[in-house]
Specification:
Layout lengths: L7 E9 L2 E6 L3 E6 L13 E7 L2 E7 H4 L12 E7 L2 E7 L1 E9 L3 E2 L4 E2 L2 E2 L3 E7 L2 E6 L7 H17 L1
Parallel strand pairs: 2-13, 5-7
Antiparallel strand pairs: 1-2, 1-8, 3-6, 4-5, 6-7, 9-12, 10-11, 12-13
Length: about 160
């Protein structure tokens, strides 16, 4: 008789303000080095601007600002994770990306009310991996629908005016 397989979640694990986060790998298109970002006027403070990624204009979000965390200087490890955020493709600036791992689904618990000052609305759960806790982001909640629409319009208007 075959052993039962435990459902797993495959995560891209990254660091932000000293904490370890994870997002489901199927939402991550690619991970790139930090590059020059073109500012767009009239966008929310957490929107750094846009980049041209092989002909596609991608809005870039500073996750420190989005989650109201202390600002961090860019380093050689700083990365842009290009992800699907609801209906949009955006880049998220993170301190570093460390690994891809498979986490047993039964090791994930609902998020506690507050983690490192981040609103629980952004969280999917907390996973236990060896002796680490991995905060799982709910990417579909990082931007509200109204913010997505507004950002799409501002980016289109900002790019057109450049």
């Amino acid at each position: 008789m075959a052993a039962e397989t435990v459902p797993e979640v495959q995560l891209v694990v990254f660091q932000l303000a000293g904490e370890t986060y994870g997002v489901e790998i199927n939402h991550v298109q690619e991970i790139i080095r930090l590059q020059a970002i073109t500012e767009i006027p009239r966008t929310p403070a957490f929107v750094e601007g846009v980049i041209n990624l092989r002909g596609r204009i991608i809005p870039i979000l500073d996750m420190h600002k989005r989650f109201h965390l202390p600002a961090a200087e860019a380093t050689n490890n700083t990365r842009i994770m290009v992800v699907e955020l609801g209906e949009m493709t955006v880049g998220m600036i993170v301190d570093s990306v460390s690994e891809v791992l498979r986490l047993p689904a039964d090791s994930i618990e609902p998020p506690p009310p507050m983690i490192s000052g981040i609103d629980v609305a952004y969280l999917k759960g907390v996973g236990k991996w060896n002796d680490k806790l991995i905060i799982l982001l709910a990417l579909d909640r990082v931007l509200r629908e109204s913010e997505q629409r507004e950002l799409q319009q501002e980016v289109a208007a900002g790019v057109a005016s450049k």
